[in-house]
Amino acid sequence: MSVKIRLQRHGKKGKPFYWVVAADARSKRDGKYLEKIGTYNPNTNPATIDLNLDSAVKWLHNGAQPTDTAKAILSYKGALLKHHLEGGIRKGALTQEQADAKLAAWLEAKAGKVDAKKDGLTKAQADAKSKAFKAEQEVNAKRLAAAAKAEADAIAAATPAVEEVAEVEASTEEAPAAEENNETTEA
User: Fold this and answer.
1) How many whole angstroms separate alpha carbon 24 and alpha carbon 34?
2) Nearest to 58 by CA among 77, 40, 75, 82
């Protein structure tokens, strides 16, 4: 029986969530598996990976072949390095302490890179948010200025019309008074 370390899809449509499993190569993608090794969530940035390192190395020692994506995940978390270092211990090239020190140094460096990426992403997100806020403030200021100008134009346009209406009313009041004067003089 050949064993594969592969991903088993879970989650909903458009939001995948994967289990990293050791399964018989003949079983279905989401079918029966031998052991759940970890989880992989590609929806977050950076992707969230939770992996049982010892279990993954045990399956690698037993001859399980990882798929391409599973191999990338195992490499990212250090399972392939630990498997390689344990091979060196078996051959006598390294001691257990040296292998543990190399693995710990690699894990620390990897954690530093991941933290730097997270910091960069949060900084980029904050910069984008501040730029959007400034752009929104500029648009609001222009909109308020345009509204104030339109209101001032409306007031200026209404003022002469009111004066013209007052003049027309004044002239119409004078005309009937003059007609009354003409009627009284004729009688």
Assistant:
1) 7
2) 82
37/51 Cα distance (integer angstroms): 6
CA atoms within 13 A on the CB side of 169: 6
Residue 31 is which amino acid? G
Q: Find tokens 């399972």 and name the residue.
A: 79
Distance (Å, whole) CA 171 – CA 86: 110
* Tens of pLDDT, residues 15-46: 999 999 999 999 888 889 999 999 999 998 88
C-alpha–C-alpha distance, residues 20 and 181, integer Å: 108
Whole-prediction pTM value? Answer: 0.63
Nearest 10 degrees: Cα torsion 76, 82, 83, 85: 130
- Token representation of residue 3: 């064993």
